[in-house]
Amino acid sequence: MEPPKRPIEPRRAHGRSPRLVLMCGLPGAGKTTLARRLEAELPAVRLCPDEWLAALGIDLRDEITRDRLETQFWLLARRLLALGQSVILESGFWLRSDRDEKRLGARALGAAVELRFLGAPLDELYHRIERRNAAPALGDAHITRADLELWATVFQAPDAAELALFDPPERP
User: Are 79 and 73 in contact (CB under 8 A)?
Assistant: First the structure.
């Protein structure tokens, strides 16, 4: 499905214009906790790849399947936005190019786009992960300190100039 060439006026659900919320941060940052709260407050459809992979019995570190699932989430998110429904994508968005793609794609559909960046020092992130490792819930993968340190070298944190490209958070 090719996106429209010019912005369209999407339908409105719940009396509001649709909004795409991108949850950005490393593991342990609090993305899922905040996304669950926003899901009810906005309201929005929340798409979390870790939860879906776990529910389907797929290894959370299966990157090929994760990439396919996230591609399907983006197709679904665009359809929902066009129908006037707000969407929360909980993929972490470690790369600027991924955030740009989603921002531009959603804006082409006439939707507002928020970037919720949750950052914390690595020691704090790992402290949270240790607690989660001790009592995992559905969608929680065991993460080591080495995993987190490696992922931190790949993660491209948004700077102030990038954050300014996004819409301010909507207050329910």
Answer: no
